[in-house]
Design a protein that fits this description.
By secondary structure, this protein is mostly helical. Among the domains are: 98 residues, Serine Threonine Protein Phosphatase 5, Tetratricopeptide repeat; 139 residues, no CATH class. A two-stranded antiparallel ribbon has the order 1-2. Strand 1 and strand 2 form a beta hairpin. Helix 3 packs antiparallel against helix 4, helix 6 packs antiparallel against helix 7 and helix 6 packs parallel to helix 8. The chain is globular and about 60 Å long. The N terminus and C terminus are likely disordered.
């Protein structure tokens, strides 16, 4: 089990497992609970994670000693931007299965999103003690170190995660950010290009490249054309529901409207990268439109990224590009790459 952007798929899997368990268990309310599971599945498929969490609540109540049902609802809460509720569910899951490192990793991720980084680090350390040969544990601790601005401590953990799981593109993306934070732009670029070769369908790899190609303080690594190409690819893979209203036949419409009826913080950053790319290309009208949509869909609470996004929007409205490179990345980390 891993935390990544496939939350809807995982909710569906959980719902199906829960339905089978309840039906086989002969629960007197099995028909109603099956309807709740079906409703949660449909809600997650359409991206309405708040509704999915609500639909999962009766199942949690009926199977309150099963840590997986809390984890299923926690996924929905995370994607709905309700971090504190997600953390509460993950905490209950961990109480029910205290020897499971996964729940500690999930809570560490939750704390990283609320800015409680000391707690996030404590949970990551505890997870490593429980599962010292699990790559995710080291990747998560590296992730927290980066969110703390400590790339020097992050790199050994990320290298160890890659050693344990050399086929993970997600770890490569995380390592690229750590390298970028140190000004090692060529090394960062190599990691992201490697990640793309390993997993061509993983959007953050393209968005990371686009961000550096648009905002790097070192002009040798900037390329407006490549930034737009990679930014659009990352957004197509990472934020298809938002991009659908912005893109028509591959061309982005600056006056497009997207109803912010859901919170997609982990996907919204791909639009931050795309907006920066258009600004670097001098298309500030489009940059403003894309940045506005990223802000509209990033309604998670709390949201330390909001201030940075509004500053970017102000720059683009003033027809200026952002050249701060990875200064933006540290507060954005919990939204750019979810722990694998």
């Amino acid at each position: 089990m891993r935390l990544d952007n496939g939350v809807a798929t995982r909710l569906i899997a959980y719902a199906l497992v829960l339905c089978t368990t309840l039906i086989c268990g002969g629960c007197s309310s099995q028909a109603a609970l099956k309807q709740d599971a079906d409703a949660a599945t449909k809600a997650s498929q359409r991206g309405d994670y708040k509704a999915a969490a609500d639909d999962l609540s009766p199942i949690v109540a009926a199977d309150s000693q099963n840590p997986d049902v809390y984890m299923a609802r926690a996924y929905a809460y995370f994607e709905a931007g309700e971090n504190q509720r997600a953390i509460a569910d993950v905490t209950r899951a961990s109480e029910l299965e205290p020897d499971a490192a996964f729940y500690l990793l999930a809570r560490s991720y939750g704390y990283s999103r609320t800015g409680e980084l000391d707690r996030a680090l404590d949970d990551a350390n505890s997870a490593i003690q429980l599962a010292p040969n699990t790559a995710d544990c080291y990747a998560q601790r590296g992730f927290v170190h980066m969110a703390m601005g400590n790339s020097a401590s992050a790199l050994p953990d990320l290298d160890h995660a890659i050693k344990l799981d050399p086929n993970s593109a997600i770890y490569r993306v995380q390592k690229g950010f750590a390298l970028g934070m140190q000004g090692r732009y060529a090394d960062a670029q190599r990691e992201w290009e490697t990640a793309i070769r390993m997993r061509p369908g993983y959007g953050p790899s393209y968005s990371a490249l686009a961000w550096m190609q648009a905002t790097c303080p070192d002009a040798r690594f900037r390329s407006a054309k490549q930034a737009v190409e990679n930014g659009k690819r990352g957004a197509e893979l990472g934020a298809p529901t938002m991009l659908a209203a912005l893109v028509s036949m591959g061309l982005l419409r600056a006056n497009a409207k997207v109803k912010p009826n859901q919170s997609e913080p982990s996907l919204a950053w791909s639009l931050d990268a795309l907006a920066a790319a258009y600004a670097e290309a001098g298309d500030f009208r489009t940059a403003v439109a894309v940045q506005q949509q990223a802000i509209a869909h990033n309604k998670t609470t709390p949201n330390p990224l909001a201030v940075q996004e509004k500053r970017l929007l102000a720059l683009y409205r003033a027809q200026k590009s952002y050249r701060g490179g990875f200064d933006f990345v540290v507060p954005a980390l919990p939204w750019i790459v979810l722990p694998s």
